[in-house]
Automatic annotation (TrEMBL):
GO terms for biological process: methylation. Keywords: DNA damage, Methyltransferase, Transferase. Its EC number is 2.1.1.63. NCBIfam families: ogt. SUPFAM superfamilies: Methylated DNA-protein cysteine methyltransferase domain, Methylated DNA-protein cysteine methyltransferase, C-terminal domain. InterPro entries: MethylDNA_cys_MeTrfase_DNA-bd (IPR014048), MethylDNA_cys_MeTrfase_DNAb (IPR036217), MGMT_N_sf (IPR036631), WH-like_DNA-bd_sf (IPR036388). This is Methylated-DNA--[protein]-cysteine S-methyltransferase. Residues 79-162 form the Methylated-DNA-[protein]-cysteine S-methyltransferase DNA binding domain. It is an enzyme of class 2 (transferase). The keyword Oxidoreductase does not apply. The lineage of its organism: Bacteria, Pseudomonadati, Pseudomonadota, Betaproteobacteria, Burkholderiales. CDD domains: ATase.
Length: 165
């Protein structure tokens, strides 16, 4: 496997149809998943937790209905956790708008968007299933319509059966 600068930051780097996913673990928990461009190359898992993550990511990339079962480190504020819980309940093939999520938790759409952008576990907590009222919206705190992260969001939604983006 290729070794590139920055690879040492990750316990594994898994090839993805849109680039790669960097996996950070601490030996017991997943600490973070990061969308990466393909120039990062792949990195073999360095521990059992990152091996489990790599296997589950590969399953998701081939089976959009696959459900993750990973030991996630507890992170986020109480509010973020509330948003992430709602997002985690959105079924594959469906989306909610930031406003719809906000109404469910009695909050504001912008605050929901900020919680989505603070998600440490994208795909596992599927923030890509949250969109703007009039379009795709941002993704991973990125709003560039032609950028890498928006491309990832489009791919994830299409992979899960939503082709309109």
């Amino acid at each position: 496997m290729k070794t590139r600068p920055g690879n040492e930051l990750f316990s594994a780097i898994v090839a993805a149809p849109f680039g790669a996913v960097g996996v950070r673990t601490d030996g017991a928990f997943v600490r973070e998943l990061v969308y990466l461009p393909s120039q990062f190359g792949e990195k073999s898992p360095t521990d059992p937790v990152s091996e489990k993550v790599a296997h589950q990511l590969e399953r998701y990339f081939s089976e959009p209905d696959f459900r993750f079962d990973l030991p996630l480190a507890p992170v986020g504020t109480v509010f973020q956790q509330k948003v992430w819980q709602v997002i985690s309940s959105i079924p594959r093939g469906s989306v909610l708008t930031y406003g719809q999520v906000a109404r469910l938790i009695q909050s504001a759409p912008r605050a929901v968007g900020q919680a989505c952008g603070a998600n440490w576990y994208p795909m596992v907590i599927p923030c890509h299933r949250v969109t703007a009222t009039g379009g795709l919206g941002g993704f991973s705190n990125q709003a560039d319509a032609g950028g890498f992260h928006i491309g990832v969001k489009r791919w994830l939604l299409a992979h899960e059966g939503i082709k309109d983006w």
